[in-house]
Design a protein that fits this description.
76% helix, mainly alpha, 215 residues, single chain, 10 helices, globular
C-alpha cells in the first residue's frame, strides 16, 4: 500500500501538475501536501518530533564546513559552465530585476525550501524507511523523487540538476537527522541558482523567449 502511495504522491502527482501547466499553481499544492505530512508526523507516536526543530545552532555549526565545501565547488562549476555555454544568462536576475532577486533570496527559503524539506526528507525518511529497507536505498529514492518533482517546471534542466542535489540533501538529512541543516543546504543551492542565472529553469510558467533563444 505504501508503495502505491509513494508512486502516487511523488511521481503521478508531479506529472499531472506538469501536464496541467501554469493552470495549477505548484506552490499552494506543495504547501497543502507539506501540511498533510506535518499532520501525519505529529500524529505518529513513533516519530521523534525533535526532527522538526527549526533551530539547532550546534548541529548547524558542526555541519557548515561539510556543506560549504561542495557548495563552493558547485558554484564554480556552474559559473564556468554558464560563462562558456550561455554567457547571456550569467547573473541575469540580479542585473535585470534586483528587487525581485532580493525578494526571492528572502522568501524562497521559507516558502519553498522549508515545505520541500518537510515532505522530501523528514516525512519521506520516516514514512518509507521500512519500504526501502536500507538507509542508502531510502536516500537514493528521496533524491530521485525530489529531482522528479521538478518536472512541474517542464524542462529537463530542472530535473537533471535537481536529482544530484536531492541525493546530496537526502544524504545530509540521513547524516544529521535535522530539517534545519538539510534546509539550509537546500536554500544555499537554490539561492545560487537564482543568483547565477538559472532561475528561469525553476519557474512555473512559460520559459522566457530570450532563454529559449540561447539553447
Amino acid at each position: 500500500m505504501r508503495a502505491l502511495e509513494f508512486a502516487g504522491l511523488f511521481f503521478v502527482l508531479p506529472s499531472l501538475i506538469a501536464w496541467a501547466g501554469p493552470r495549477v499553481p505548484a506552490l499552494p499544492v506543495l504547501w497543502a501536501i507539506s501540511l498533510m505530512c506535518l499532520f501525519s508526523l505529529r500524529r505518529d507516536p513513533d516519530f521523534d518530533r525533535q526532527r522538526l526543530r527549526l533551530w539547532d545552532a550546534a548541529r548547524l555549526s558542526q555541519s557548515l564546513k561539510s556543506i560549504l565545501a561542495p557548495f563552493c565547488a558547485a558554484a564554480a562549476v556552474l559559473f564556468l559552465a554558464l560563462r562558456h555555454w550561455a554567457p547571456g544568462l550569467l547573473f541575469d536576475l540580479p542585473k535585470r530585476n534586483p528587487v525581485q532577486w532580493c525578494l526571492t533570496l528572502c522568501l524562497y527559503p521559507v516558502f519553498s525550501v522549508l515545505p520541500q524539506g518537510l515532505v522530501y526528507r523528514t516525512f519521506f525518511a520516516h514514512r518509507y524507511e521500512r519500504t526501502f529497507g536500507s538507509p542508502a536505498a531510502l536516500a537514493l529514492a528521496s533524491g530521485i523523487a525530489f529531482g522528479y518533482m521538478h518536472i512541474v517546471f517542464r524542462n529537463a534542466w530542472a530535473v537533471g540538476l535537481s536529482i544530484p542535489a536531492g541525493l546530496l540533501f537526502a544524504a545530509r538529512y540521513r547524516q544529521t537527522r535535522s530539517l534545519l541543516v538539510s534546509s539550509v543546504e537546500h536554500a544555499l543551492y537554490g539561492c545560487l541558482i537564482f543568483t547565477i542565472g538559472m532561475g528561469a529553469f525553476f519557474y512555473h510558467g512559460p520559459m522566457p523567449q530570450f532563454i529559449r533563444d540561447m539553447f
